[in-house]
Design goal:
Strand order of the largest sheet: 1-2-5-4-3-6
Structural class: mainly beta
Shape: globular
Distance between the termini: 32 Å
Helix content: 10-25%
Largest sheet: 6 strands, antiparallel, barrel
Strand content: 35-45%
Radius of gyration: 17 Å
Order of helices and strands: EEEEEHEEEEEEHEH
Number of helices: 3
Length: about 200
């Protein structure tokens, strides 16, 4: 489980295709401090498993296996050497939950529709796939490329968030432009409520 509070910006070093899967290698510093084999790291909001690492040019290169399902459902398949990514280690049970419950299980992808600058922040509108629209509510939570955000406005096929200066500085969302694709994870609690209601209606 993650919180959607980004710890570090990493950089893609290598993407090595292997049939319908791939090995993704990232260069990072902070998240490498306590690496263990099998650790979970959220990469642009996608939970990936550490399969190896080594020191390289003052940073640590970390390897992840990426399955076909991940490549098909997320925008991880769009990454290339030099791409900058949001990174977060798994949440600790003895720490504050500063964002919201983020599983790292991407529900789909959207894209940036527009950016509207404010005095010290920006309003960003994202396209919302129809199959995810029912899970997104005003003042609810959503993860965009792994960043925990509060929905400030929502329509049938879009939602908006306000990005504070810290989010613009510390995550990849500060550089996203209209047309750029992003990973979306809706609130897991909304999905469980829907499932319970469906089961109750059939019983």
């Amino acid at each position: 489980m993650f919180t959607g509070i980004i710890e570090e910006l990493g950089e893609v070093a290598v993407v090595q295709p292997r049939g319908d899967s791939a090995v993704l290698t990232l260069a990072a510093e902070r998240i490498a401090e306590d690496l263990v084999h099998g650790a979970s790291i959220a990469v642009n909001g996608v939970c990936l498993t550490v399969v190896g690492w080594r020191a390289a040019e003052g940073r640590t290169q970390i390897d992840f296996d990426v399955m076909a399902e991940t490549l098909n459902r997320s925008v991880i398949g769009d990454l290339r050497p030099g791409s900058v990514v949001n990174l977060e280690r798994a949440a600790r049970v003895d720490a504050r939950l500063d964002g919201h419950i983020v599983q790292g299980h991407v529900d789909g992808s959207g894209s940036v529709l527009s950016r509207t600058p404010g005095d010290a922040w920006e309003s960003v509108r994202f396209a919302l796939p129809p199959e995810l629209a029912r899970y997104v509510a005003e003042k609810g939570s959503v993860a965009v490329d792994g960043v925990s955000l509060t929905v400030s406005g929502v329509g049938d096929d879009w939602f908006e968030v306000g990005l504070i200066p810290e989010t613009l500085r510390a995550t990849t969302l500060g550089a996203k432009q209209p047309g750029d694709r992003v990973n979306l994870e809706v609130d897991v609690l909304a999905k469980y409520v829907e499932r319970l209601l469906e089961r109750g209606a059939r019983s």
